Amino acid sequence: MTSKRLGRTQDPTILVLTSLSGGPKHGYSVIKDIEAMSGISFGPGTLYGVLARLEEEGMVEALPAEGPRRPYRITATGAVALRERLQVTVKVAQVAFERLGALGA
C-alpha cells in the first residue's frame, strides 16, 4: 500500500524546473507536463507563485507573450540548480534502495 502523503512530498520548484528543462512552455503546458510526469496536479496559483519566485531568483525567465499566453524558459542558473538538486536526490534514492534491499523490502 502506498501512502498518499508521500506523493505530496515532491518539491514544486523541482517539478517546474524539470518541466521547463524540456523547452519553453506556458503555464497550462507546465501544469499538464507536471501532471503527466508525476501525477501531481497544480492549480494556477501554485504554479504562478513558483514561477514568480523562480523568476525573481533568476532560474526562469518569461518570454514575450504569444497572444494571451506567456511562455517561460529555464535559465542557465536554473539548469545548474536543477542538476545539483537532482544529483543529491539520486544519491539519496540510491542509499534508500540499498537500505531497503538490506531489509528485504
Please characterize this protein's 3D structure.
It is a single chain. This protein is mainly α and 105 residues long. The chain is 59% helix and 9% strand. The protein contains four helices and three strands, in the order αβααββα. Strands 1-3-2 form a three-stranded antiparallel sheet. The longest helix is centred in the last third of the chain and has 28 residues, at 76-103. The protein is elongated and about 55 Å long.
Overview in brief:
The chain is mostly helical and 105 residues long. 59% of the residues lie in helices and 9% in strands. It has helices spanning 12-20, 27-38, 44-56, 76-103; strands at 25-26, 60-62, 71-74.
Summarize the helices and strands and which ones pair or pack:
Elements: H1 12-20, E1 25-26, H2 27-38, H3 44-56, E2 60-62, E3 71-74, H4 76-103
Antiparallel strand pairs: 1-3, 2-3
Helix pairs in contact: 1-2
Could you name the CATH topology? Arc Repressor Mutant, subunit A
**Euclidean distance between termini CA atoms:** 13 Å
One letter per element, helices H and strands E, the order comes to HEHHEEH
Give the structural class.
Answer: mainly alpha
Give the overall pLDDT as a whole number.
90
Over all CA atoms, what is the radius of gyration? 16 Å
| Structure summary, number of beta strands | 3
What ranges have pLDDT less than 50 throughout 5 or more consecutive residues? none
- For the record, the CATH class is Mainly Alpha
Measured as a percent range, the helix fraction is 55-70%
CATH homologous superfamily? Winged helix-like DNA-binding domain superfamily/Winged helix DNA-binding domain
The best one-word shape is elongated
CATH architecture annotation name: Orthogonal Bundle
Our count of domains comes out at 1
Strand line-up of the largest beta sheet: 1-3-2
- How large is the share of residues in beta strands? 5-15%
* Count, helices: 4
